[in-house]
Amino acid sequence: MYCRKCGAQNDDNAFRCVSCGEIIQQVQQVQQVGGNMPYVPNYLVHAILATIFCCVPFGIVSIVYAAQVNGKLAAGDYDGAVDSSNKAKTWFWVSFGIGLAVSIMWFFFAIIGALAEA
Prior knowledge:
The structure is a single chain. The protein folds into 2 domains: about 1-40, no CATH class; about 40-115. About 65% of the residues lie in helices and about 0% in strands. The chain has helices at about 25-35, 45-55, 55-75, 80-115. The chain is elongated and about 75 Å long. Mean pLDDT is about 85; it is low at about 25-35.
């Protein structure tokens, strides 16, 4: 199969062009040919851990997006699943970063408080 954008030759069951990354087949065609869609990570475990240990509000946003990934894949919405996956990953990192920053500040103030008492 040849890419419509760059003309590079690809495998018959390829989803994206190996040369330019252009989508060669739609998701429905991939399901018919291979029986499976390409893997999309849902980041649900990351989101749950970030919610518990880092920052609850942003972790919950990450959980919501992570929970949408598998449903969108089941409905055949590959692009929507990738979008939700990317948003889940982004909000996980936001939650993790805020949790890390708060922990560092707490540690810093705890050290200063301990030195002030001494």
